[in-house]
Amino acid sequence: MNKKLLWIGLAMLMVTTPMLGQVNNNEDDEDDEDEIVVTDDKGREEVIEFPEAMTYDLDSLLNLYMAKTYLEEEDCNMRDINPVYSKEDYIGRLMRLPNVMEMVYNDVVQKFIDRYSGRLRHSISYMLGASNFYIPIFEEALEAYQLPLELKYLPIIESALNPNAISRAGAGGLWQFMIGTGKQYGLQVNSLVDERRDPVKASYAAARYLSDLYKIFGDWNLVIAAYNCGPENINKAIRRSSGEKDYWQIYPYLPKETRGYVPAFIAANYIMTYYSLHNICPMGTRLPAKTDTVMVNRNVHLQQVAEVVGINIDLLRSLNPMYRRDIIPGATEPYALRLPLTEVGKFIELQDTVYNYKVDELLNKRSEVEIKDDVPTYYKKGKRSYKRRSARYKSRKSSARKRKSSRRRSSRRRR
What we know:
This protein has helices spanning about 5-10, 25-30, 60, 65-70, 85-95, 105-115, 120-145, 155-160, 180-185, 200-215, 220-230, 230-240, 245-250, 255-260, 260-275, 300-310, 315-320, 340-355, 360, 390-415, and strands at about 35-40, 45-50, 70-75, 285, 290-295, 300, 325-330, 335-340, 375-380, 385-390.
């Protein structure tokens, strides 16, 4: 893959947009820290944490198989410079977005736009390329529940479009479900399967969850804030603000990361639409044009599929991120295997060969074992030591006891 322009861009000194309004203008701090400091009109400073996905290192994204194999830096004549625009330009662009959800402008939103268009501009380049694969999946799930399609950009700030992302708190997948919430919405998590990482299942679960949150709050800003910190924290903030139900009114009572969550969401909608105005080039995509699934009802290792069907093992992992150890436990229940559409027929034709290929090597979990019990074994119980002897040793000792007892009885009779 040709990343020459990408790495040249990383080496260049990036020029970011000056902060507008009453925002702390310390760009060095922004490059080193994972939070921003905003100063209000009374000179009071407020610390806001960036969502965790905004702190991911670009190298970690480019090491994903999808980036290494199916994304490449396109020829781009744009200079790696972030142009300066006026406040009115940003307001006008946000107002022109064809969205149902409110996309307002303020100093905090500006700070997040600057972060995406400045320090994270090359991560945006990656996400623009990856979005060609993921965004249609998100839109389909959102449309099924009649939700605003602009919610498709929520995984931008949740996971940076990394299906294997795990947060510090243990949330996982593109939509960053906690295990408990994921199971509540039908996502299995066990030692072999983590459906939070499955793009399709997790997207439908996220759409259901967002729909349920909207039934509770009736306001989309509160919904996505609740998606970040939980509905309980939103209800607490509403009570502390004397019943206010506007995100910007309960803002001071929210956790630090949630204060930046709605601004980050607005900024993500902005940058994914107006990236070209900030000289950001999308990475080109060579992802499989179409994929399809086949149901597997026997245990199978991805390496069996890869070697028999002739598919790159990393591609299979990329298309099936839910299988944590490359094993599809189809014997437990039928599971879906996602393949490039061109390979589905070949798998069906060769599936018996697939199931039998290197089965003892790759699926070597035993179903039955015999216990080796022909030597003494030792264990401790309390302060005394006991020996568990073999059946033969116990038999010999039992016979000796009987002979000794018999001699004692004979001795007593003679007396």
